[in-house]
Amino acid sequence: MILIVFLIAFCVAASLDTPGRFAPVGIFGIAVLVRRSIHLHRLRKEQDESWRNNGFAEAGLIMALLPLTYEELKELPFTVIALGLLVVALLFAAFVAWRGYRSVPAGHVGVVRRVQGSSDPEFRHVTPYDTRGVLARTLLPDRPSWLMPLVYEVELVPRTRVAEDRIGIVTAKAGKTRPANRSVGLPVSCDHFQNGQAFLLNGGEQGKQVDTLANGQTYDINPELFEVDQVARVHVPPGTLGLVNAKAGAIRLPGRHFGPHVECDDFQDGGRFLSGGGEQGRQLAILQGGAYYNINPALFDVVTVDTVGESGGELTAEHLREISIPIGYTGVVITLDGAEPESSDQLGPRVPGHEGFRLPWVFLRNGGTRGVQEETLREGTVCALNPYFVRVVLIPTRLLFLEWNERTPAKSRNYDAHLARIAVTVQGHRLFVDVSQTLQIPPESAPVLVSKNGGSQLTGLGGLDRDPLPVQRFVERVLGAIVASYFNEIAAAATVKEFLEAYAETRTDLASQVRNALQAWGVESRNTTLGEFRAEDPMLNEILKRPAHEQMRGELLDVELANAEREDAIDAIRVQRESRRVELELKARIDALGLNNVMVLEMLREITKAPVPQFVGGGDLSAYLETQPIARLEELLDKMRGLHGQAALADDARPSLDKGDTQTDLPAQGGVRGAPEETG
Questions:
Q1: Band of residue 306 on the pLDDT scale cut at 50, 70, 90
Q2: What's the whole-model pTM score?
Q3: Whole-number pLDDT of residue 313
Q4: In this structure, is the dihedral angle defined by the CA atoms of residues 47, 50, 53 and 56, taken in order, positive or negative?
Q5: Helix %, strand %, coil % for the chain, to 5?
Q6: Positive or negative CA dihedral for 311, 246, 225, 123?
Q7: Residues 169-186: pLDDT tens digits?
Q8: Which residues of 445-475 are buried (b: 16+ CB within 10 A; e: fewer)?
């Protein structure tokens, strides 16, 4: 295109008939050729162009145009030449000003490259100085600047945006060489890697950096100096915990399981971790559940329930869950690190300040020992504990009901799973008996129980241990041994009859021995129950049943006798009550009517009740008369005469019937008052 413009200008100049007409064309051609030569020289250095682009042709054309231009300029007046030079200078100045103006649009940064000048021997690729190469500083948006054309080039790149759910891992492409024993570069004050000059001048190191870019932020970062990779933030689900393993730091001393604790904002400040003496390997501090963390994966490995399958080993998702102590249980704590105890039977003493083993570094610093601890976790406790440091064994503190009877596979996890039915041999007869025991383990006695009886876990991991074996061993070794020994002892020196007759004494004595044995362990015995004895021989069982049957029959008869006696007593009370009622009623009538009148009324009442024949046939009339009421009346009157004398005095003091209505002196063969007399 430029060649076409040059040819057109040359043709126009040739058509003119003025002196110096080829001078402007020559100057234009020389300028174009010089610019092209510079451009080809840069391409040849950067891309190793072939000899065909070596600039000889441009140089030859320049040499040809120079004499022509010079001859044309000599023909022009001095004022024209001066004016032309001034115009050329102004045009050049305007061109330089226009080409040097730089304005970076929003959302971008300008990467500056100097193409002319000498290079710095220390910083060859990216330089903090104004030397040849990529400059560490960048051009920021909305900040116009001016750079010399043909000396600087500017490339626009997007700003670095870190997503909300991610963090930026920065890798420096230039800087000091990092020591071989450190996998990340130390932190450098450089405004979150936005000030490349400060990074290089303050000793920034090559490779991955310990500092990260926070989520949800935008940064003005030079991509020629820093490479940013976005990785997911560490998320620990609620109800779980995260374990941290440091990839960088000092090497631990032999015999130490954990590095020293360094306050570093939950491992989000890797610089503080390294400067504070953090060591490689497992860390005592854990990450609490229900939160996100900006942790540099180049410095720390974090194991959560979502990534535990990738870590391998014996660690499972169950180890990373919070420890919850149910109601009716206590948590016996076994620490897997600490000072060596003085003896294997000694419980770890209480250590202040560790907040229920949530701060294991405080526990170790204050002299905590390894093994079973005297301090327990009470029921209802929910806490996140490092499973590499603590194991918690659940021991029941509620009432336990234990039975010596036949076992089924489904009951293998019961605390009395190792107790079998009691069997003793007395005089060659094998007898069986079921025994039950109720007991309660206080929280303060649980550590000793675990220390003496242990468990089945053989790994070096902690977490919540629901193994019933410590209590099963205690029940078997203490209760089982005492009960079995007691029955074998009394069976060896007794007959079957004596053995059975001493049932009540046996139960009382057994309860006393069990109570004393449990008391030595600090365990409370609540109730000991002894079942019935049963023989292996069916005939002996029948014999054993007879006394019981007879006893039951006697008890039944005793009950019936007692009931009969109660019924007799009730009848006697009823008779007494009825007699009293009749007596009171008769007394009231006598008081109101008099004794004789009452006797007459009672006599008449009895006569009305007497039976009278309904039919009289032939025969003896005297026999018939004997059945009539008049005969009965005569008998009653005779009795009344006998009683009349005795009640005469009392009768005078009481009211009586009118003498005109009642006849007191009746004839011996008399009849009823008002009846006609018999005639001879």
A1: very high
A2: 0.66
A3: 78
A4: positive
A5: 40, 20, 40
A6: negative
A7: 999 999 999 988 888 999
A8: bbbbbbbebebeeeeebbbbbeebbbbbbbb
Residue 51 DSSP one-character state: G
**CB hemisphere CA count around 130 (13 angstroms):** 4
First to last CA, the chain: 195
Residue 120 has which token pair?
A: 């710095």
Give how far Cα 30 sits from Cα of 27, 77, 618, Å: 5, 21, 192
Residue pointed to by tokens 């000889």 = 56
Residue 369, Cβ density class (10 Å: 0-12 exposed, 13-18 middle, ≥19 buried) = buried
SS3 608: helix
Task: Give the torsion through C-alpha atoms of 126, 129, 132, 138, to 10 deg.
Answer: 60
Rounded Cα gap, residues 507 and 505, in angstroms: 5
**According to DSSP H, which parts of 411-537 are helical?**
446-453, 469-474, 481-492, 496-501, 503-520
Q: What angle do CA 523, 524, 526 make, to 5 degrees?
A: 145
Instruction: Say which residue, 669 or 310, is predicted with more confidence.
Output: 310
Average pLDDT, whole number, for the chain?
81
Burial letters for 303-319: b for 16+ Cβ neighbours within 10 Å, e otherwise?
bbbeebeeeeeebeeeb
SS3 per residue for 40-78: HHHHHHHHCCCHHHCCHHHHHHHHHHHHHHHHHHHCCCH
CA distance to 117, 136, 149, 186, 197, per residue, from 129 (Å)? 12, 8, 18, 22, 8
β-bridge pairing 422-426 and 429-433: antiparallel
- The single residue listed with the structure tokens 């930026």 is 168
174 residue type, one letter = A
Phi/psi at 226 (nearest 5 deg)? -130, 140
Strands 241-246, 281-288: pairing is antiparallel
As a dihedral over the C-alpha atoms of residue 618, residue 623, residue 629, residue 632, rounded to 10 degrees, the angle is 180
Residue identified by tokens 């200008």 is 9
Distance of CA 84 to the CA centre of its chain: 90
Write the CB contacts of 155 (distance below 8 Å, at least 6 apart in sequence): 110, 111, 113
Comparing C-alpha atoms, which of 424, 402, 413 is closest to residue 493?
424
